[in-house]
Amino acid sequence: MRKTLHIALMEHLKKHECDREKLTALYTEFKDAEESTAEALSLYADLVFTYGVDEDGYNSKVTAPAVIGIGLTLRSLANDLSLAQYGRDFSGQALDLLTQEESEHKGANNG
Questions:
Q1: What are 74-106's pLDDT values in tens digits?
Q2: Domain of life, per the record (predicted)?
C-alpha cells in the first residue's frame, strides 16, 4: 500500500513540476507534516516509555492488545512520516531542477 501511495503522490506532484509557487507551497506543507509527525512519534514514544517505567513496571498491567495498539499507532505515524519525507524530497528535487533550468536558460540568453 505504501508503494501505491508513493506512486500516486509522485504522479500528483508531476502535474506541478513546472510551477515554482505550487511546488514551494507543497514543499512547505510536506516539511510541516514531517516535523509534526516526528514530534508526535517522539511524544508518543516518551509517553509509552515513561508509563512502562513509572507505572507498569510496578503494576504489570500492559496487555498484548495494548502493545499491539501501540505498535499500530507507531507504524501509522512512521508511514505518515515516510510519506511526508517522500513528498518533501520529490518537491525539493523538482524545485532544484526548475532552478537549474532557469539558470541554464539565462546563461543561454546572455551568451
A1: 888 888 888 888 888 888 998 999 889 888 888
A2: Bacteria
